[in-house]
């Protein structure tokens, strides 16, 4: 009898647990629970009791409420993992959609693909040495600039396709009145020239982005003498490894030929163009022994030098301190330093003449200045067909590529006459 009561109690427990499990599942699904009739409910109960009689005869009760709960319960760790995964997926989708809406699909794809670098690809370290600076403005002092510009490859062959360029260096007291004429000269020759401006005024006016003078003014640091400015121009131009020839010009200079003629003349020359004339005036004996009176020279400041001579100028620490200390008014450093130093260091490299024509026939301390009334065909015929000079060991009548001094009033007639007389 006692065993029957135990079995009945277990069956009651089973029925009670199964019933509550069913109610729980229905509650979760938010479905209505169907009510059973009393007769159906008791019929089921009596069926359970009949099964209990059979269990009493030795059969094991295989299912209990506790085991049923264990078999039917969902593992809590797996449930937490599933919830975490769903939350992460929702967050990722929200972030992705927001990014695409803000930046656009093209920019997102571009940023992802551009950041991929194959393992075998390495950055080209050579680019930092051979590419010209993107901007001319920098915060280097004169000493730092001259030191950096003095580096020069010791091998003549280059491990890249180098196109030699002419560096046009404008040393100005103010604006560039002949900028439109230079624009016309340099048009469509971008790969063969560079432009640098050193001006005593802080602003040269606004050049459009398409102009050859746009953002080409170099920073001004340290001392402001003319010779310092010329060395500073050379040093900034030397930072571009493709610059091979360096021409110093003023705001009153104009070109006499088209760019193709100028480039061919300079690039084929075996010499640089400077006028080192022997002169004993203004010499100071304290410059000896570095500079003797026999080595003292005077010449025009408007020169053209190749890269080798330009490096010699910016790296000099022997002669320049002497000129700085002892070449004082009425000794002008810009008229004596370059011809004297290069005559001592590289005498065979100089052609002993200038490429810039000036007229000293009127006398005085300054050359003649030409304006609008002077611009005609006869005027340029006298300049371009003057006395012969030597070019690469041979006589030629083509001696000057540039001319000065011209006033701003000469611009309009020069623009009009340029296609016929100057060939550009």
UniProtKB/TrEMBL annotation:
Keywords: Glycoprotein, Glycosyltransferase, Membrane, Transferase, Transmembrane, Transmembrane helix. It is a single-pass type II membrane protein. The chain crosses the membrane at residues 76-97. The keyword Transmembrane helix applies. It is found in: Membrane. Its main location: membrane. Pfam families: Branch (PF02485). This is Core-2/I-branching beta-1,6-N-acetylglucosaminyltransferase family protein. It comes from Brassica napus (Rape).
